[in-house]
Amino acid sequence: GQNIDQPTEMTATEGAIVQINCTYQTSGFNGLFWYQQHAGEAPTFLSYNVLDGLEEKGRFSSFLSRSKGYSYLLLKELQMKDSASYLCAVSPTGFQKLVFGTGTRLLVSP
Amino acid sequence: DVKVTQSSRYLVKRTGEKVFLECVQDMDHENMFWYRQDPGLGLRLIYFSYDVKMKEKGDIPEGYSVSREKKERFSLILESASTNQTSMYLCASTPKNEQYFGPGTRLTVT
Question: At residue A95, does pLDDT exceed 70?
């Protein structure tokens, strides 16, 4: 079966750094994705990792270790607008079919 | 700019009705997906399609069917709506890796 685990909820302060972890156990691996979803809105793509290492994109970075089945999303210089759910998803096979975790709800406070 | 549209943002239907949810993308993507999103369960794949008239079952296809007669349009059909199909339904399309999501349809079955 497919299993993706991430914390249910996290809180952080404006301006701080937060790391959201994701562990996965899937039948195959064709890439790991992070999406951001604000309440009542559609998920939007943040990052894609298929090789081990860190991918940096502005204030957001994503890390992957395939041997450990582990990824994290790092958010720097947190802003209030970063309050959202962050979804970790793995593509076990081709056709870009994704398996999603249940999401981590991040609350940024002043 | 990438655009995925869904026919309705909110829909209320009665038990036993046949329900059609429409999704249209204007990016000439081959792959299209239907998910439902429920609190605590995350996004779960219902069906996907990798070409016109092609369809594959996802993780929870029971009670649903799909139709893809044209490349830009992917329809989700609830043959006989039931109360346990009350949910947020999200359509997505992808050219290669990242998936682009529509705004979602919140369906309530009473």
Answer: no
- pLDDT tens string A31-84: 999 999 999 899 999 999 999 999 999 999 999 999 999 999 999 999 999 999
Pairing of strands B10-13, B105-109: parallel
The DSSP-derived string for B51-81 is ETTEEEE-S--TTEEEEEEETTEEEEEESS-
d(CA A45, CA A57): 12
CA–CA gap between residue B88 and residue B22 (Å, rounded) = 14
Q: Which of B1, B10, B91, B98 to mutate to test the interface with A (most CBs of A within 10 A)?
A: B98
pLDDT higher than threshold 90 for residue B80? yes
CA distance A89 to chain B (A): 9
- Nearest C-alpha of chain A: how many angstroms from B16? 27
Q: In this structure, what are the phi and psi dihedrals at residue A68, rounded to the nearest 5 degrees?
A: -100, -5
